[in-house]
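This follows on from our talk about sequence and fold. Can you supply me with one protein entry, sequence and fold together? Could you add the entry underneath, on a fresh line?
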Amino acid sequence: MLQTFRCQPISSIVSRSLHPKCSRFCSKHPRTFLQETCRKGQVPTTSAIARSFFRNFSSATNWEEPSGYDTGIRVTNSLRKDRVKVPLILSNKNVATWYACGPTVYDSAHIGHASSYVRFDIIRRILSEFFSIDVVQVMGITDIDDKIIKRSQESDISFSQLTKVYQDEFYQDMDNLNVLPATLYTNVTDHVPQIIAFIQQIIDNGYAYAAPSGSVYFDVQAFGPQYGKLSTDNMDTGEAGEPNENLSEKRNARDFALWKAAKPNEPWWTSPWGNGRPGWHIECSAMASGIFGRSLDIHTGGKDLAFPHHTNEIAQCEGCFRSDQWANYFLHSGHLFLKHDVNKMSKSLQNVISIREVLQKYTANQFRLFCLVTKYNNDIEYGDETMQNAISLANQLSSFLSDSDAYVKGQLMCQPIDEAALMQRLSEVRDQFITALADDFNTHKAMEGLMDLVQLGNKQLQNTSKDTSGARSPGVIAAISTYINHVLNSLGVQFTQRNSPGSTASTRTLTSVLDASVEFRNSVRQWALDSSNSMTQNDELTSKEKKKLVMQERAPVLIACDQFRDGLADSGIQIKDRSIEHGTWEFVEKPSKTT
Protein backbone atom coordinates (compact mmCIF):
# COMPACT_ATOMS: atom_id res chain seq x y z
CA MET A 1 0.00 0.00 0.00
CA LEU A 2 2.74 2.43 0.91
CA GLN A 3 4.46 1.77 -2.46
CA THR A 4 2.02 4.20 -4.07
CA PHE A 5 3.39 7.02 -1.89
CA ARG A 6 6.43 7.25 -4.19
CA CYS A 7 4.31 8.97 -6.79
CA GLN A 8 2.44 11.25 -4.36
CA PRO A 9 3.46 14.52 -2.77
CA ILE A 10 4.80 14.21 0.75
CA SER A 11 2.05 16.51 2.02
CA SER A 12 -0.51 14.06 0.65
CA ILE A 13 1.11 11.17 2.53
CA VAL A 14 1.02 13.15 5.76
CA SER A 15 -2.55 14.34 5.40
CA ARG A 16 -3.90 10.89 4.42
CA SER A 17 -1.83 8.79 6.81
CA LEU A 18 -2.33 10.64 10.08
CA HIS A 19 -5.04 12.08 12.30
CA PRO A 20 -6.04 15.63 11.23
CA LYS A 21 -4.26 17.08 14.28
CA CYS A 22 -1.02 15.42 13.29
CA SER A 23 -0.67 17.35 10.05
CA ARG A 24 0.36 20.47 11.92
CA PHE A 25 3.39 18.63 13.26
CA CYS A 26 4.03 16.57 10.15
CA SER A 27 4.30 19.75 8.14
CA LYS A 28 7.59 20.22 9.94
CA HIS A 29 9.39 17.19 11.37
CA PRO A 30 7.90 13.96 9.88
CA ARG A 31 7.87 15.47 6.43
CA THR A 32 11.63 15.89 6.65
CA PHE A 33 11.96 12.26 7.71
CA LEU A 34 9.86 11.07 4.78
CA GLN A 35 11.73 13.22 2.26
CA GLU A 36 15.09 11.91 3.45
CA THR A 37 13.84 8.31 3.41
CA CYS A 38 12.46 8.60 -0.13
CA ARG A 39 15.59 10.37 -1.32
CA LYS A 40 17.57 7.30 -0.30
CA GLY A 41 15.24 5.12 -2.39
CA GLN A 42 13.73 3.50 0.68
CA VAL A 43 10.03 2.96 1.28
CA PRO A 44 8.99 4.21 4.72
CA THR A 45 7.17 1.62 6.73
CA THR A 46 4.07 2.38 8.78
CA SER A 47 5.99 1.77 12.01
CA ALA A 48 8.79 4.11 10.90
CA ILE A 49 6.29 6.85 10.15
CA ALA A 50 4.67 6.30 13.55
CA ARG A 51 8.01 6.33 15.40
CA SER A 52 9.07 9.51 13.62
CA PHE A 53 5.77 11.19 14.25
CA PHE A 54 5.50 10.40 17.95
CA ARG A 55 9.17 11.20 18.57
CA ASN A 56 8.64 14.63 17.05
CA PHE A 57 5.19 14.99 18.60
CA SER A 58 6.76 14.43 22.02
CA SER A 59 9.52 16.97 21.40
CA ALA A 60 6.97 19.46 20.17
CA THR A 61 5.32 19.51 23.58
CA ASN A 62 8.52 21.13 24.87
CA TRP A 63 9.12 24.82 24.38
CA GLU A 64 10.93 25.75 21.20
CA GLU A 65 13.15 28.83 21.27
CA PRO A 66 11.70 31.30 18.77
CA SER A 67 13.74 33.08 16.17
CA GLY A 68 13.95 36.85 16.18
CA TYR A 69 15.44 39.64 18.29
CA ASP A 70 17.37 38.62 21.40
CA THR A 71 16.69 41.23 24.09
CA GLY A 72 19.62 40.17 26.29
CA ILE A 73 17.13 39.25 29.04
CA ARG A 74 16.71 35.75 30.45
CA VAL A 75 13.32 34.78 31.87
CA THR A 76 11.59 31.95 33.69
CA ASN A 77 9.18 30.75 31.03
CA SER A 78 6.30 28.66 32.38
CA LEU A 79 6.29 26.74 29.09
CA ARG A 80 9.58 25.20 30.21
CA LYS A 81 8.68 22.59 32.78
CA ASP A 82 12.28 22.41 33.99
CA ARG A 83 12.03 26.13 34.93
CA VAL A 84 15.43 26.85 33.37
CA LYS A 85 15.85 30.51 32.45
CA VAL A 86 15.79 31.08 28.72
CA PRO A 87 16.59 34.06 26.47
CA LEU A 88 13.69 36.43 25.82
CA ILE A 89 13.51 36.59 22.04
CA LEU A 90 10.93 38.82 20.35
CA SER A 91 9.46 38.33 16.91
CA ASN A 92 10.33 41.91 15.97
CA LYS A 93 13.24 44.05 17.08
CA ASN A 94 12.42 46.40 19.95
CA VAL A 95 8.70 45.53 19.89
CA ALA A 96 6.98 43.18 22.33
CA THR A 97 3.43 41.92 21.82
CA TRP A 98 1.90 41.20 25.23
CA TYR A 99 -1.50 39.88 26.27
CA ALA A 100 -2.51 40.24 29.92
CA CYS A 101 -5.48 38.62 31.60
CA GLY A 102 -7.54 41.41 33.14
CA PRO A 103 -10.23 41.42 35.83
CA THR A 104 -13.68 39.89 35.94
CA VAL A 105 -15.59 43.06 36.75
CA TYR A 106 -18.26 41.96 39.22
CA ASP A 107 -16.67 43.34 42.40
CA SER A 108 -13.90 45.65 43.65
CA ALA A 109 -10.32 44.57 42.92
CA HIS A 110 -8.25 43.52 45.95
CA ILE A 111 -4.56 43.81 46.73
CA GLY A 112 -3.89 40.29 45.48
CA HIS A 113 -4.88 41.61 42.07
CA ALA A 114 -2.95 44.81 42.72
CA SER A 115 0.30 42.99 43.47
CA SER A 116 0.08 41.12 40.16
CA TYR A 117 -0.77 44.19 38.09
CA VAL A 118 1.92 46.32 39.79
CA ARG A 119 4.57 43.64 39.33
CA PHE A 120 3.81 43.26 35.63
CA ASP A 121 3.66 47.04 35.29
CA ILE A 122 7.20 47.08 36.68
CA ILE A 123 8.30 44.51 34.07
CA ARG A 124 6.63 46.52 31.33
CA ARG A 125 8.49 49.64 32.47
CA ILE A 126 11.77 47.71 32.65
CA LEU A 127 11.38 46.59 29.04
CA SER A 128 10.55 50.11 27.89
CA GLU A 129 12.88 52.22 30.03
CA PHE A 130 15.96 50.04 30.42
CA PHE A 131 15.92 47.89 27.26
CA SER A 132 14.31 50.28 24.75
CA ILE A 133 11.48 47.88 23.87
CA ASP A 134 8.12 49.27 22.76
CA VAL A 135 5.46 47.20 24.50
CA VAL A 136 2.09 46.71 22.82
CA GLN A 137 -0.06 45.42 25.66
CA VAL A 138 -3.63 44.20 25.31
CA MET A 139 -5.65 43.48 28.44
CA GLY A 140 -8.83 41.42 28.29
CA ILE A 141 -11.77 42.43 30.49
CA THR A 142 -14.28 39.72 31.38
CA ASP A 143 -17.65 41.48 31.42
CA ILE A 144 -19.91 38.44 31.13
CA ASP A 145 -19.70 35.21 33.15
CA ASP A 146 -21.50 33.25 35.88
CA LYS A 147 -20.31 35.49 38.73
CA ILE A 148 -21.37 38.65 36.93
CA ILE A 149 -24.81 37.24 36.12
CA LYS A 150 -25.33 36.09 39.71
CA ARG A 151 -24.24 39.45 41.20
CA SER A 152 -26.39 41.47 38.77
CA GLN A 153 -29.43 39.36 39.64
CA GLU A 154 -28.75 39.79 43.36
CA SER A 155 -28.38 43.56 42.85
CA ASP A 156 -31.45 43.75 40.60
CA ILE A 157 -29.57 45.62 37.87
CA SER A 158 -28.48 44.64 34.37
CA PHE A 159 -25.16 42.89 33.96
CA SER A 160 -23.89 45.76 31.77
CA GLN A 161 -24.68 48.32 34.49
CA LEU A 162 -22.85 46.23 37.06
CA THR A 163 -19.75 45.71 34.94
CA LYS A 164 -19.50 49.39 33.98
CA VAL A 165 -19.35 50.38 37.65
CA TYR A 166 -16.58 47.94 38.49
CA GLN A 167 -14.66 48.41 35.25
CA ASP A 168 -14.52 52.18 35.85
CA GLU A 169 -13.46 51.49 39.44
CA PHE A 170 -10.71 49.17 38.20
CA TYR A 171 -9.34 51.84 35.88
CA GLN A 172 -9.30 54.33 38.76
CA ASP A 173 -7.58 51.83 41.06
CA MET A 174 -4.87 51.21 38.48
CA ASP A 175 -4.38 54.94 38.03
CA ASN A 176 -4.12 55.40 41.81
CA LEU A 177 -1.45 52.66 41.85
CA ASN A 178 0.39 54.38 38.97
CA VAL A 179 -0.06 51.34 36.73
CA LEU A 180 0.30 52.30 33.07
CA PRO A 181 -2.89 51.81 31.05
CA ALA A 182 -2.85 48.99 28.52
CA THR A 183 -2.36 49.91 24.89
CA LEU A 184 -5.82 48.45 24.32
CA TYR A 185 -8.53 47.06 26.60
CA THR A 186 -10.83 44.46 25.06
CA ASN A 187 -14.24 43.56 26.50
CA VAL A 188 -15.71 40.13 25.87
CA THR A 189 -19.14 41.52 24.98
CA ASP A 190 -17.57 43.61 22.20
CA HIS A 191 -15.97 40.56 20.59
CA VAL A 192 -18.71 37.91 20.53
CA PRO A 193 -18.76 37.62 16.68
CA GLN A 194 -14.98 37.06 16.65
CA ILE A 195 -15.32 34.50 19.44
CA ILE A 196 -18.01 32.61 17.50
CA ALA A 197 -15.81 32.52 14.38
CA PHE A 198 -12.87 31.31 16.47
CA ILE A 199 -14.96 28.48 17.93
CA GLN A 200 -16.19 27.47 14.49
CA GLN A 201 -12.61 27.15 13.25
CA ILE A 202 -11.74 24.87 16.16
CA ILE A 203 -14.77 22.71 15.33
CA ASP A 204 -13.77 22.59 11.66
CA ASN A 205 -10.29 21.43 12.68
CA GLY A 206 -11.73 18.53 14.66
CA TYR A 207 -11.00 19.68 18.21
CA ALA A 208 -14.44 20.73 19.42
CA TYR A 209 -18.00 19.45 19.25
CA ALA A 210 -21.50 20.82 19.77
CA ALA A 211 -23.66 19.11 22.37
CA PRO A 212 -27.43 18.62 21.99
CA SER A 213 -28.02 21.44 24.50
CA GLY A 214 -26.35 23.97 22.22
CA SER A 215 -23.16 24.17 24.27
CA VAL A 216 -19.84 23.63 22.49
CA TYR A 217 -16.94 21.81 24.17
CA PHE A 218 -13.26 21.53 23.40
CA ASP A 219 -12.30 17.89 22.80
CA VAL A 220 -9.17 17.38 24.93
CA GLN A 221 -8.72 13.76 23.84
CA ALA A 222 -8.84 14.67 20.15
CA PHE A 223 -6.26 17.38 20.76
CA GLY A 224 -3.90 14.77 22.14
CA PRO A 225 -0.90 14.80 24.50
CA GLN A 226 -0.02 18.32 23.42
CA TYR A 227 -2.63 19.43 25.96
CA GLY A 228 -1.19 20.50 29.32
CA LYS A 229 1.88 22.60 28.51
CA LEU A 230 1.31 24.57 31.70
CA SER A 231 0.54 21.60 33.93
CA THR A 232 0.52 22.26 37.65
CA ASP A 233 0.29 20.18 40.80
CA ASN A 234 -3.51 19.99 40.61
CA MET A 235 -3.72 19.10 36.91
CA ASP A 236 -3.80 15.32 37.37
CA THR A 237 -6.86 15.55 39.57
CA GLY A 238 -8.42 18.80 38.38
CA GLU A 239 -10.86 19.31 35.55
CA ALA A 240 -10.31 21.74 32.72
CA GLY A 241 -13.89 22.97 32.67
CA GLU A 242 -15.77 25.57 34.67
CA PRO A 243 -18.13 24.94 37.59
CA ASN A 244 -21.76 24.09 36.76
CA GLU A 245 -20.92 22.52 33.38
CA ASN A 246 -23.13 19.63 32.29
CA LEU A 247 -20.82 16.63 32.69
CA SER A 248 -23.30 14.24 31.12
CA GLU A 249 -22.99 15.83 27.69
CA LYS A 250 -19.20 15.88 27.68
CA ARG A 251 -17.20 13.21 25.90
CA ASN A 252 -14.50 13.49 28.54
CA ALA A 253 -14.50 15.02 32.02
CA ARG A 254 -11.62 17.33 31.01
CA ASP A 255 -13.47 18.80 28.06
CA PHE A 256 -14.36 22.43 28.68
CA ALA A 257 -16.98 24.82 27.37
CA LEU A 258 -16.22 27.12 24.47
CA TRP A 259 -19.85 28.19 24.18
CA LYS A 260 -22.45 27.89 26.95
CA ALA A 261 -26.06 27.31 26.00
CA ALA A 262 -28.45 29.99 27.25
CA LYS A 263 -30.29 29.47 30.51
CA PRO A 264 -33.54 31.18 31.54
CA ASN A 265 -33.13 34.83 32.59
CA GLU A 266 -29.51 35.01 31.42
CA PRO A 267 -27.97 37.23 28.70
CA TRP A 268 -27.42 35.47 25.37
CA TRP A 269 -26.17 35.96 21.82
CA THR A 270 -27.18 34.04 18.71
CA SER A 271 -24.77 31.48 17.29
CA PRO A 272 -24.76 28.54 14.83
CA TRP A 273 -25.30 26.22 17.82
CA GLY A 274 -28.12 28.15 19.44
CA ASN A 275 -28.46 31.06 21.83
CA GLY A 276 -25.77 31.31 24.47
CA ARG A 277 -22.63 33.10 25.57
CA PRO A 278 -18.85 32.51 25.46
CA GLY A 279 -17.09 30.26 27.93
CA TRP A 280 -14.43 31.79 30.14
CA HIS A 281 -11.30 30.41 28.45
CA ILE A 282 -12.20 31.10 24.83
CA GLU A 283 -12.54 34.84 25.30
CA CYS A 284 -8.83 35.50 25.89
CA SER A 285 -7.76 33.26 23.00
CA ALA A 286 -10.10 34.98 20.56
CA MET A 287 -9.42 38.54 21.71
CA ALA A 288 -5.63 38.13 21.82
CA SER A 289 -5.61 36.50 18.39
CA GLY A 290 -7.94 39.14 17.02
CA ILE A 291 -5.28 41.76 17.79
CA PHE A 292 -1.99 39.90 17.39
CA GLY A 293 -2.84 37.11 14.96
CA ARG A 294 -1.63 33.55 15.25
CA SER A 295 1.43 34.21 17.44
CA LEU A 296 2.25 36.22 20.55
CA ASP A 297 5.47 37.15 22.33
CA ILE A 298 4.38 37.34 25.99
CA HIS A 299 1.33 36.26 27.97
CA THR A 300 1.01 37.12 31.67
CA GLY A 301 -1.20 36.45 34.67
CA GLY A 302 -1.18 35.11 38.20
CA LYS A 303 0.19 31.60 38.61
CA ASP A 304 -3.25 30.37 39.70
CA LEU A 305 -4.35 30.95 36.07
CA ALA A 306 -1.80 28.50 34.64
CA PHE A 307 -4.34 25.69 34.95
CA PRO A 308 -6.91 25.53 33.67
CA HIS A 309 -7.22 28.99 32.11
CA HIS A 310 -3.88 29.47 30.36
CA THR A 311 -3.58 25.76 29.59
CA ASN A 312 -6.93 25.92 27.81
CA GLU A 313 -6.04 29.16 26.02
CA ILE A 314 -3.01 27.45 24.52
CA ALA A 315 -5.03 24.42 23.40
CA GLN A 316 -7.69 26.61 21.82
CA CYS A 317 -5.22 28.74 19.86
CA GLU A 318 -3.03 25.87 18.73
CA GLY A 319 -6.17 23.94 17.82
CA CYS A 320 -7.50 26.88 15.84
CA PHE A 321 -4.27 27.71 14.03
CA ARG A 322 -2.86 24.14 13.84
CA SER A 323 0.36 25.52 15.31
CA ASP A 324 2.99 24.09 17.63
CA GLN A 325 3.53 27.21 19.72
CA TRP A 326 1.09 30.09 20.07
CA ALA A 327 2.55 32.30 22.83
CA ASN A 328 6.32 32.07 23.09
CA TYR A 329 6.52 33.08 26.77
CA PHE A 330 4.20 32.73 29.73
CA LEU A 331 5.19 34.76 32.79
CA HIS A 332 3.31 34.08 36.01
CA SER A 333 3.31 36.25 39.12
CA GLY A 334 3.43 34.80 42.63
CA HIS A 335 0.51 34.91 45.03
CA LEU A 336 -0.07 37.47 47.75
CA PHE A 337 -0.77 36.07 51.21
CA LEU A 338 -1.92 37.81 54.34
CA LYS A 339 0.42 37.28 57.28
CA HIS A 340 -0.55 34.11 59.22
CA ASP A 341 -2.91 33.05 56.41
CA VAL A 342 -1.80 30.00 54.42
CA ASN A 343 -4.33 30.71 51.66
CA LYS A 344 -3.77 33.12 48.81
CA MET A 345 -6.01 36.18 48.82
CA SER A 346 -9.30 35.27 47.19
CA LYS A 347 -12.84 36.66 47.20
CA SER A 348 -14.23 33.16 47.58
CA LEU A 349 -12.28 32.74 50.84
CA GLN A 350 -13.40 36.17 52.07
CA ASN A 351 -9.83 37.10 53.05
CA VAL A 352 -9.56 40.14 50.80
CA ILE A 353 -8.50 43.73 51.33
CA SER A 354 -9.59 46.13 48.61
CA ILE A 355 -7.12 48.37 46.81
CA ARG A 356 -8.94 51.42 48.12
CA GLU A 357 -8.63 50.22 51.71
CA VAL A 358 -4.88 49.78 51.29
CA LEU A 359 -4.39 53.22 49.74
CA GLN A 360 -6.11 54.78 52.75
CA LYS A 361 -3.31 53.34 54.92
CA TYR A 362 -0.30 53.37 52.60
CA THR A 363 0.80 55.33 49.55
CA ALA A 364 1.10 53.96 46.02
CA ASN A 365 4.89 54.37 46.22
CA GLN A 366 5.05 52.36 49.43
CA PHE A 367 2.96 49.55 47.92
CA ARG A 368 5.11 49.53 44.77
CA LEU A 369 8.30 49.32 46.84
CA PHE A 370 6.69 46.44 48.71
CA CYS A 371 6.34 44.70 45.32
CA LEU A 372 9.81 45.71 44.11
CA VAL A 373 11.74 44.07 46.93
CA THR A 374 10.60 40.58 45.87
CA LYS A 375 10.89 38.89 42.48
CA TYR A 376 7.70 39.02 40.47
CA ASN A 377 7.25 35.23 40.39
CA ASN A 378 7.78 34.70 44.13
CA ASP A 379 4.94 34.64 46.61
CA ILE A 380 4.68 37.75 48.75
CA GLU A 381 3.40 38.22 52.31
CA TYR A 382 1.37 41.30 53.14
CA GLY A 383 1.40 42.51 56.74
CA ASP A 384 2.47 45.33 59.04
CA GLU A 385 6.09 44.14 59.11
CA THR A 386 6.55 43.94 55.35
CA MET A 387 4.75 47.24 54.78
CA GLN A 388 6.81 48.97 57.48
CA ASN A 389 9.89 47.83 55.58
CA ALA A 390 8.44 49.43 52.44
CA ILE A 391 7.73 52.65 54.37
CA SER A 392 11.31 52.67 55.66
CA LEU A 393 12.65 52.30 52.10
CA ALA A 394 10.42 55.12 50.88
CA ASN A 395 11.59 57.39 53.70
CA GLN A 396 15.27 56.63 53.01
CA LEU A 397 14.86 57.35 49.31
CA SER A 398 12.85 60.52 49.81
CA SER A 399 15.22 61.78 52.50
CA PHE A 400 18.26 61.21 50.30
CA LEU A 401 16.72 63.05 47.34
CA SER A 402 15.70 65.95 49.59
CA ASP A 403 19.08 66.18 51.32
CA SER A 404 20.89 65.95 47.99
CA ASP A 405 18.82 68.85 46.64
CA ALA A 406 19.64 70.91 49.74
CA TYR A 407 23.34 70.07 49.56
CA VAL A 408 23.65 70.97 45.88
CA LYS A 409 21.97 74.32 46.57
CA GLY A 410 24.33 75.06 49.45
CA GLN A 411 21.61 74.77 52.09
CA LEU A 412 23.16 71.70 53.76
CA MET A 413 26.73 71.69 55.06
CA CYS A 414 28.73 68.57 55.77
CA GLN A 415 32.28 67.34 56.05
CA PRO A 416 34.21 66.88 52.77
CA ILE A 417 32.80 64.03 50.66
CA ASP A 418 34.84 61.14 49.31
CA GLU A 419 34.12 61.82 45.64
CA ALA A 420 36.17 58.92 44.26
CA ALA A 421 34.44 56.33 46.46
CA LEU A 422 30.96 57.61 45.60
CA MET A 423 31.60 57.77 41.85
CA GLN A 424 33.10 54.28 41.84
CA ARG A 425 30.08 52.92 43.70
CA LEU A 426 27.71 54.71 41.31
CA SER A 427 29.43 53.07 38.34
CA GLU A 428 29.23 49.63 39.97
CA VAL A 429 25.56 50.01 40.86
CA ARG A 430 24.68 51.09 37.31
CA ASP A 431 26.16 47.85 35.91
CA GLN A 432 24.78 45.63 38.68
CA PHE A 433 21.32 47.11 38.32
CA ILE A 434 21.02 46.30 34.62
CA THR A 435 22.53 42.85 35.17
CA ALA A 436 19.91 42.11 37.83
CA LEU A 437 17.04 43.29 35.62
CA ALA A 438 18.30 41.17 32.73
CA ASP A 439 18.26 38.16 35.07
CA ASP A 440 14.53 37.42 35.01
CA PHE A 441 13.63 40.96 36.13
CA ASN A 442 15.26 40.43 39.52
CA THR A 443 14.11 43.66 41.18
CA HIS A 444 15.00 42.30 44.63
CA LYS A 445 18.69 42.19 43.75
CA ALA A 446 18.51 45.44 41.79
CA MET A 447 16.95 47.29 44.73
CA GLU A 448 19.58 45.93 47.12
CA GLY A 449 22.33 47.61 45.09
CA LEU A 450 20.35 50.84 44.75
CA MET A 451 19.67 51.08 48.49
CA ASP A 452 23.34 50.41 49.22
CA LEU A 453 24.19 53.48 47.13
CA VAL A 454 21.51 55.55 48.89
CA GLN A 455 22.76 54.55 52.33
CA LEU A 456 26.32 55.42 51.37
CA GLY A 457 25.17 58.83 50.14
CA ASN A 458 23.03 59.45 53.23
CA LYS A 459 25.96 58.62 55.47
CA GLN A 460 28.12 61.24 53.74
CA LEU A 461 25.41 63.92 53.83
CA GLN A 462 24.51 63.34 57.46
CA ASN A 463 28.07 64.08 58.56
CA THR A 464 27.05 67.72 59.10
CA SER A 465 29.39 70.59 59.82
CA LYS A 466 29.04 74.29 60.72
CA ASP A 467 32.26 75.03 58.85
CA THR A 468 31.34 76.24 55.36
CA SER A 469 34.90 76.81 54.23
CA GLY A 470 35.70 73.19 53.39
CA ALA A 471 35.67 71.70 49.90
CA ARG A 472 32.24 70.80 48.60
CA SER A 473 31.25 68.20 45.99
CA PRO A 474 27.83 69.12 44.59
CA GLY A 475 28.62 67.46 41.25
CA VAL A 476 28.94 63.91 42.55
CA ILE A 477 25.88 64.21 44.80
CA ALA A 478 23.87 65.61 41.89
CA ALA A 479 25.02 62.71 39.68
CA ILE A 480 23.91 60.11 42.23
CA SER A 481 20.56 61.75 43.02
CA THR A 482 19.82 62.21 39.32
CA TYR A 483 20.52 58.53 38.65
CA ILE A 484 18.41 57.33 41.58
CA ASN A 485 15.54 59.64 40.69
CA HIS A 486 15.67 58.42 37.08
CA VAL A 487 15.63 54.76 38.14
CA LEU A 488 12.73 55.27 40.55
CA ASN A 489 10.69 57.20 38.00
CA SER A 490 11.39 54.51 35.40
CA LEU A 491 10.09 51.84 37.80
CA GLY A 492 6.97 53.85 38.61
CA VAL A 493 8.08 55.17 42.02
CA GLN A 494 7.50 58.87 41.63
CA PHE A 495 8.19 61.10 44.60
CA THR A 496 6.83 64.60 44.15
CA GLN A 497 9.83 66.84 43.63
CA ARG A 498 10.04 70.62 43.85
CA ASN A 499 11.17 71.01 40.25
CA SER A 500 9.84 67.94 38.46
CA PRO A 501 10.23 68.17 34.65
CA GLY A 502 6.51 67.67 34.22
CA SER A 503 5.52 70.40 36.66
CA THR A 504 2.48 72.42 35.69
CA ALA A 505 2.29 76.20 35.82
CA SER A 506 0.25 76.04 39.02
CA THR A 507 2.82 73.72 40.61
CA ARG A 508 5.64 76.06 39.66
CA THR A 509 3.69 78.97 41.13
CA LEU A 510 3.18 77.00 44.35
CA THR A 511 6.90 76.25 44.44
CA SER A 512 7.76 79.93 44.10
CA VAL A 513 5.31 80.89 46.86
CA LEU A 514 6.70 78.22 49.18
CA ASP A 515 10.29 79.24 48.43
CA ALA A 516 9.49 82.85 49.35
CA SER A 517 7.50 81.85 52.43
CA VAL A 518 10.19 79.54 53.78
CA GLU A 519 12.89 82.12 53.07
CA PHE A 520 10.88 84.74 55.00
CA ARG A 521 10.48 82.26 57.89
CA ASN A 522 14.23 81.59 57.79
CA SER A 523 14.95 85.31 58.13
CA VAL A 524 12.50 85.77 61.00
CA ARG A 525 13.75 82.68 62.79
CA GLN A 526 17.40 83.69 62.34
CA TRP A 527 16.66 87.14 63.82
CA ALA A 528 14.75 85.59 66.75
CA LEU A 529 17.60 83.22 67.61
CA ASP A 530 20.34 85.87 67.43
CA SER A 531 20.52 87.60 70.84
CA SER A 532 23.34 89.91 69.71
CA ASN A 533 20.86 92.16 67.91
CA SER A 534 18.85 92.80 71.08
CA MET A 535 17.78 96.39 71.91
CA THR A 536 17.74 95.62 75.64
CA GLN A 537 19.89 98.16 77.59
CA ASN A 538 20.46 96.81 81.09
CA ASP A 539 24.09 96.87 82.21
CA GLU A 540 23.23 95.09 85.45
CA LEU A 541 22.48 91.83 83.59
CA THR A 542 25.13 89.32 82.60
CA SER A 543 25.36 88.29 78.94
CA LYS A 544 23.74 84.95 79.82
CA GLU A 545 20.86 86.70 81.59
CA LYS A 546 20.44 89.10 78.66
CA LYS A 547 20.26 86.17 76.23
CA LYS A 548 17.65 84.43 78.37
CA LEU A 549 15.58 87.61 78.54
CA VAL A 550 15.77 88.07 74.77
CA MET A 551 14.65 84.48 74.18
CA GLN A 552 11.69 85.01 76.48
CA GLU A 553 10.72 88.17 74.64
CA ARG A 554 11.02 86.49 71.25
CA ALA A 555 9.42 83.18 72.21
CA PRO A 556 6.08 84.12 70.57
CA VAL A 557 7.92 84.71 67.28
CA LEU A 558 9.59 81.29 67.43
CA ILE A 559 6.27 79.69 68.37
CA ALA A 560 4.70 81.33 65.31
CA CYS A 561 7.52 79.91 63.14
CA ASP A 562 6.85 76.43 64.54
CA GLN A 563 3.11 76.79 63.96
CA PHE A 564 3.75 77.83 60.36
CA ARG A 565 5.93 74.71 59.89
CA ASP A 566 3.36 72.40 61.54
CA GLY A 567 0.52 73.88 59.49
CA LEU A 568 2.30 73.08 56.24
CA ALA A 569 3.12 69.57 57.50
CA ASP A 570 -0.61 68.87 57.78
CA SER A 571 -0.85 69.69 54.08
CA GLY A 572 1.98 67.34 53.10
CA ILE A 573 4.79 69.93 53.02
CA GLN A 574 7.68 69.44 55.43
CA ILE A 575 10.06 72.23 56.46
CA LYS A 576 13.50 71.14 57.61
CA ASP A 577 15.62 73.57 59.61
CA ARG A 578 19.08 72.67 58.32
CA SER A 579 20.80 75.34 60.42
CA ILE A 580 20.06 78.74 61.91
CA GLU A 581 20.68 80.28 58.49
CA HIS A 582 19.05 77.69 56.24
CA GLY A 583 15.73 75.93 56.08
CA THR A 584 14.31 73.85 53.21
CA TRP A 585 10.95 72.37 52.30
CA GLU A 586 9.81 69.22 50.54
CA PHE A 587 6.63 67.38 49.65
CA VAL A 588 5.77 64.46 51.96
CA GLU A 589 3.60 61.57 50.79
CA LYS A 590 0.38 60.92 52.65
CA PRO A 591 -2.06 58.04 52.09
CA SER A 592 -5.30 58.92 50.35
CA LYS A 593 -8.30 59.52 52.61
CA THR A 594 -10.85 59.35 49.82
CA THR A 595 -12.98 56.30 49.17
